[in-house]
TrEMBL record:
Gene3D superfamilies: Immunoglobulins (2.60.40.10). PROSITE patterns: IG_LIKE (PS50835). The keyword Amino-acid biosynthesis does not apply. It is a single-pass type I membrane protein. Its main location: membrane. InterPro entries: Ig-like_dom, Ig-like_dom_sf, Ig-like_fold, Ig_sub, Ig_V-set, Myelin_P0-rel. This is Ig-like domain-containing protein.
Length: 185
């Protein structure tokens, strides 16, 4: 496990978030401490391999109203056609259950970006009846379940949350690989 501490300029920080929002994401598991202030802010990135388990989040004081920590894991998920997959996504601070509409999931694939969920509402027909938020929002668990997966569901699944101060927090994504079902050859 490697820890990197960076003191990026505001330009670099803007570029990182812009890249994350436009789909140019790193295939990393990130813990990002974001503080909104007028000066440059420290950015801490935790890099871990998929073979290692992530440490538990510290039980320190919850972040203030303009500060939050965000985590999405794991980097990869594998399943066979027809199975259900849970995509874990966690926000360190507690989330008001009324904030469900502030949760968004989308998938980046070779065909481009497709919106999966906005709140607990299916955005595209291809996901209708197969996808829902399955975590406990009051615990900061923004996890999503996708049922009866098919080969067309391959891609990088990303979780985003819009905080009360309109900051968009986004995970590093989970790459879904799918193998053909056992009954097909």
């Amino acid at each position: 496990m490697a820890f990197l501490s960076l003191l990026p300029s505001r330009t670099l920080l803007t570029h990182i978030f812009h890249s994350a929002l436009t789909g140019g994401l790193l295939f990393l598991c990130l813990i990002v401490n974001v503080t909104i202030i007028a000066s440059p802010t420290p950015l801490t990135i935790l890099i871990t391999s998929t073979a290692e388990s992530l440490p538990a989040l510290p039980a320190d004081d919850p972040p203030g109203p303009q500060e939050a920590s965000y985590l999405q894991q794991p980097l990869k998920a594998k399943a066979a056609e027809g199975e259900d997959v849970v995509f874990p996504c966690y926000l360190k601070s507690d989330v008001d259950e009324g904030a469900v509409e502030k949760v968004k999931w989308y998938v980046q694939s070779l065909e481009g970006r497709r919106n999966v969920l906005q709140g607990n509402e299916t955005v595209e027909d291809v996901f209708a009846g197969r996808v829902f938020l399955s975590g406990d929002l009051s615990e900061g668990d923004l996890s999503m379940t996708l049922r009866n997966i098919s080969l067309e569901d391959r891609g990088l699944y990303l979780c985003a949350f819009i905080s009360t101060n309109s900051t968009i927090l986004q995970g590093g994504g989970t790459k879904l690989s799918i193998r053909k079902g056992l009954g097909e050859r």
